[in-house]
Amino acid sequence: AYTIHILQNTDFSEVCRTLFEAERVFAYGQGFFVKSGMQILKEGMFKADLIINLLNGPGEMNTFIHNARPDDVMIIFSVSGENTETIRYAEEILQKNLKLIVITANADSSLAKSAHVVLNFAPLVTQDLKDNYEFFPISSFVFLIELLYYKYCLYCQNQNS
């Protein structure tokens, strides 16, 4: 319910316009939680004729930064938004004057503050009773991604009208 509350007041027009106008779209993130969401977004957007190229690891990210074109867009997924390596990538992307979209659970993070567009989700953090292990349900993240896909389809439909 909290994610729905956050997202019902989110304006998706800027992120949709940025994606619609992009020559190429790339996505980067680390960890199972994030990579699962990236794959869901890639598969959904493919149905909307938007190809998202997933980058796997630092080598591919560095190659992207070196070879990026002016109309490329990078989507960086980060739960905390405070990973120093990811923040460094964001800085390098911005130095090349590329558009940066950040999808994060921490809208006040260092990474989010550097982005052109930020989409925020609120993971429900629950603690497992065994060994105090934190568990992050992926549902709020997937909801955001599915809503982005839906809003992007509506945006495309309006552009073609």
Please provide a written account of the structure.
The protein has 161 residues and is an alpha/beta fold. Helix content is 50%, strand content 19%. The chain has a five-stranded parallel sheet, sandwiched between helices. The protein has a two-stranded antiparallel sheet with strand order 6-7. The protein is globular, with a radius of gyration of 15 Å.
Topology record:
Layout lengths: L1 H7 L4 H9 L2 E5 L3 H16 L4 E4 L2 H10 L4 E7 L5 H12 L3 E6 L5 H5 L2 E4 L5 E2 L6 E2 L3 H22 L1
Parallel strand pairs: 1-2, 1-3, 3-4, 4-5
Antiparallel strand pairs: 6-7
Helix pairs in contact: 2-7, 3-7
Labels describing this entry:
five-stranded parallel sheet; 7 helices; 50% helix
Largest sheet: 5 strands, parallel
Task: Supply Rg.
Answer: 15 Å
Share of residues in helices: 40-55%
Overall mean pLDDT stands at 90
The share of residues in extended strands comes to 15-25%
Structural category is alpha/beta
The string of secondary-structure elements, in order, is HHEHEHEHEHEEEH
Give the strand order, joined by hyphens, for the main sheet.
Answer: 2-1-3-4-5
Number of strands: 7
Total helical elements: 7
Instruction: Catalogue the unreliable spans.
Output: none
Indicate the overall shape. globular
> How far is the first residue's CA from the last residue's CA?
34 Å
Summed up:
With 161 residues, this protein is of the alpha/beta class.
